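Forum: Protein Structure Q&A
Topic: Joint prediction for protein chains with partners

I've read a bunch of threads here and the consensus seems to be that you should model interacting components together rather than docking separate models afterwards. I'd like to see that in practice. Below is the full input, 567 residues plus whatever partners are listed. Could one of the regulars post the assembled result?
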Amino acid sequence: MAAVADRPRPGDPLDPDAAISIRGLVRRYGDFTAVDGLDLDIRRGEIFALLGPNGAGKTTTVEICEGYRARDAGEVRVLGEDPADGARAWKAQLGIVLQSGSGDSQLTVRELLRAQASYYADPRDVDEVIALVGLTEKAGVRGRSLSGGQRRRLDVALGIVGRPTLLFLDEPTTGFDPEARRQFWSLIRSLRDLGTTMLLTTHYLDEAEALADRVGVIARGRLVEVAVPSALGGRESAPATVSWTEDGTRRTEATPTPTAFVADLAARFPGEVPDLAVSRPTLEDVYLQMIGDR
Amino acid sequence: MTATAPERTSTALPSLPAVYRSRISVELREFFRQRESVVFTLLLPVLLLVVFGAVLDYDLGSGVNFTQYFMAGIIAAGILGASFQNMAISIATERSDGTLKHLAGTPMPRSAFFIGKIAQVLAVTLASIVVLLLVGVVFYGIDLPTGSDWLTFAWVTVLGAAACTLLGIAMSSVAKNGRSASATVTPFALLLQFISGVFFQFSEIPSWMQTFAALFPLKWMAQGFRSVFLPDALAADEPAGSWELGRVALVLGIWCVLGLLLCIRTFRWQDRG
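Posted by a regular:
Agreed with the consensus. Here's the joint model:
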């Protein structure tokens, strides 16, 4: 039930206090409907993760909010303005990290950030931003000479140097190794502590679980569910699965009360319960079910 | 003072001149740091001048050496490279690698992008002309223009570079990426150079080719520069029997207007799709 209350219903008025408010959004490419009636509010100060398979409409939705794409129907307000007529002052409040990156350059990391900072009213200190994304040692290296992961961190640096109120991150950690991903997560958390609202799209469920205050699952252009990560798909109240080996065969039982069930099992066996395991559906389990079933 | 979250100290966006300066410095560094573009755009014409100057060392009459004639053509070709080829290839590259899309998502005023590109073309054009004149004077005893010829030199350069820049920007939208832009634009520019009086005397070219060449700016730029570098006696060798400076200005002006309209119609900040 919480998941239902967490998001607007079709026909609800736009939320003037939200960082992003979307009602009945539709976008078609020829015969293909990429976004098919989407309603969503993203609150100020939260990290919202949009999850979904390729082609589900994530990037289309995000790029409509960023002002890059037109919509066929529906209403969108980003920081109170319609992105379709976003002026310079509106863009100055956004930070955008595109899936496609920020391009190839002969300029160094520091020069690129200085240039980017020159477009904004009140930019962050360039060297602080470089340190924040962990590129201090690469500050004098040209953009095109960076590795894939370093380039992505440069993209993020370019996205935050303008001191955005709202930061869009479209698959920011694709191509990162696990350690770089962890470092990136702590960067995102420190930005949240500074009050930045973030809309993140990702393929990685662990990323959404680690970072997001709320998660939205999008499939075939529709928002399937919006919830806090731990409650997605009714995961918190879903029955646990207890499995063990008895008389040489593997036994599995689903139970809403795993603690009592295991206590009973323990009473039946003289020592350890053979191969005992208790599990709950992972975010991946509920996610795959969501995008597959509907 | 207490520690609080950083407040926005000002909301006034940077002034246009400040962003223009920033973009100009970006574009100059992007060009002059890229070895391929410097070699291709600046050094290739110099190399051609050296080779043609050494090989085609014959007299055109009136005591004028072919190198003097070639000087006019190679400067026109140098400007074509600095403007048309440079813009078509670099903007197509920046469109396909996401640079343009990234810029479109910032509060950078869009005029600043074009100001930066124009400054880049002007700087590269100027560098190209200076190097060519220097090599021509030092190694081949080229006679520099005199008096009002400098004025003609200046306006043909500016008008020609403007027309070719606009056409280059328009052309960049046709190509899928930088490589395909280069594959389309380079042979086209080479072809134009052959039939526009750069490598050969224009009067030696079959008349149907002359007619075709006359549709494009390069022929008129080369002709304008010939009026600057050659004695007026040689104007008799031109198809019209004169330098036709009025027509040079008219054709280049028409291409500027056409190029601008094409740019406005076709310019995109991101790939289609």
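The longest helix of chain A spans residues 178-193.
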